[in-house]
Specification:
Alpha-Beta Plaits, NADH Oxidase, 4-stranded antiparallel beta sheet, 10 helices, binds flavin mononucleotide
Length: 291
Amino acid sequence: MEKIRIDEKKCTLCGLCIPECLRGILQEGKEAVHVTNPKYCILCGHCKAVCPVDAPELPRLDASEFEPVPERENYPKADELLSFFRARRSIRQFEKRSVEREKLEKIIQAGRFAPTGGNLQGLHYTVVHTPDKLSEVRDMNLDLLYRKAEDIERAFEQNSQTGEPVPQAYQERKLYASLWKAMKGLMGKGIDKLFYHAPALVALHVDPAKSTSAMVDAGLAAMQMALMAETLELGTCFCGFFVFAVNESKEFKKILDIPEKHIVPVSFVVGYPDVKYQRLVSRNPARVNWF
Ligand SMILES: Cc1cc2nc3c(=O)[nH]c(=O)nc-3n(C[C@H](O)[C@H](O)[C@H](O)COP(=O)(O)O)c2cc1C
């Protein structure tokens, strides 16, 4: 399917789209803007978004999503937005109720509209929200972490006996070994220190060959998703231990239908918070160089 064409009957040659095109494939023609090299279009939608008469046609995109831009006066005010950002906390106590499917879909929409390098939009989303599957994922995750903890401890033991160097990745994770073992023990007593009994887990994954900025794309989308969750009265906690385990294990990816070649840069659990904070928190001052 063609990527881009200009409806010549609509185009008034106002030229607004020409400087907007990142790829420089729009030129002034005789009666309408001319697309010089349609295959280079990255489908960013800027030409259509800026056109007063909606002349650009992008048949691969959903035209109904090109809705009117909200008025700037309706944007959140800067101080309100900063308070909203600051009010987000990592939630580690959740109510026992599940999250409505519509809310999870809204959170995914928030990810979908995040910017991606080259507009490549390579992200995939995996949502685990049925109790049985979540249990299976949690158990596998805890088992993998437990085994990794044993590997780390073994490497340090060997090092003390033979002087054999401990791999860098293990040195960095030495502190986690005892924590990971304890987490599995606590789960045996019904205490979930991995997903905190949250009713859903969301993982973002991407084929690194199909993205020029996989980690950044995933981070940007994930933050938009976490903030969207806040507006839906939900809370999230990013889940680095899941990310670590799933990227290490083919079997783990397999039970989640995540292709082996995909990387999982970020994941979070989501649910209704069972905690109410009384105040915002402090952070280190920003380290800024002004020139
Ligand atoms: C990439 C990333 C991974 C994280 N992984 C975990 C995790 O596995 N378990 C956990 O309890 N918190 C995790 N967190 C949450 C951080 O501990 C938390 O963001 C930090 O302590 C600041 O607290 P706040 O989110 O409430 O502002 C993670 C955060 C990020 C950004």
